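From the shared-data thread, chain only:
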Amino acid sequence: MTENSNGFTAEMAQKFKVEVADFIKQYPKIEQIHIMFPDMNCIMRGKAIHVSALEKISAGSMKMPFSTHGLSVWGKDVETTGLALKNGDPDGVFWPILGSLAPAPNSQTHGQILTQLLPLKTGFESPVDPRDILTNILSKFSEKGLKPVLALELEFYLMSDQTPADGPPMPISSGKVQRVNEIDALVDQQGFLDDVLAGCRQQNIPIDTIIAEYGRGQFEMNMLHSDNVLQAADHAMLFKHLVRHCAKKHGMRATFMAKPLAGQPGNGLHVHISVLDKAGNNIFAASQADDVANEALLNAIAGVLDSMPDFQAIFAPHANSYRRFLVDSHAPTNLSWGYDHRGVAIRIPEFRGKNARLEHRVSGADANPYLLLTAILAGILNGLESNMQPPPAVVDGGMLGDDNLTNEWGAALRNFKKSEVAKQALGVNYYDIYLACRHDEMNQLCAMIPDIEYSTYLHRL
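Structure, as tokens:
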């Protein structure tokens, strides 16, 4: 089997050719395709091409500056990544993700395809595309005969499209009533939700449940469990893209910003994870007679908690992310775990039988799903390999303990910078690129003076 330098085989190219032909036959009105991939900040980057040029992607002839992997959240090159002009700003090449070719949200004439932007020449000790970084950690599970199974829960806010670019968000409805779990809150947005669900069906995104969350205009969508971890991360990215476009169609805006409203809950990205052995058995499953989690689940909990400070800069990537970590704010603030306890960082919804799993509750909805899952899985693997033991579980009414997560961005970046666990999980190249981009973002934000400082200090000090 022939293979190009980036691993796209002749067999895969043939599959893509069939996929393209089937797509054109099914959607004859679609003329343009958005070739897109998510950058570090989950912003979709790419270009539009005519549908007739689709097959060129599998030939490696669709290119874009590889430095796009190191863009700031403002879309500017971060020179300290070494990806831009310092390196000649070379091109990367798009490679299609099979099965992702679909109609674009709310369009009869546009389609879209999720891709990776890979280097024309390797030149790297370790991968730079987050999807490949996640692939690496999955291969380590596979070597041990293990397969993670997971489901993601994503929260977002709907807001008026009259919301100014510099905020704050304008609510989609008046009143101060919390509409958590209220069916009428769903009915009020039925047109929007119907379009989201229709888009999910077209893009094969497996949505399970929809609920109205605690915040005003806040919703949560849960995805079905999947043993295809890469595809689950792809679906999370496609879902965010879809929700934003559907909101625009209905005269609203959607945001996955971690903490868009003061005094309201933040947006989380919770992950439910179990691990199967070669025979398909859940290694976290205790017997029905057991009163506590089994050894494998305890090891996994301990590993995730142990590496949580190292990876908080992944779980909370931006300045705003740290506004979620407030006491009594529906977001965990310390290194704790418990059985069916929503105040802890690692909740154990089930520990008996096939549904035994852990729920990681720390990450904000602004996190990169590929990096987030890499970090969680690295923690689980370390816990299993080292037979780690967690602290005692938090019980009802019990104290959460003193091992706190930080609510300060700089501290999280310092923890990440000195972490060998993070460097091994992400690879030395992307570890350096991630640090460079986050430090650039932090430095630029620190140089700005927010309005609140003027109103507090200017005429009083």
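The two ends are 73 Å apart (CA to CA).
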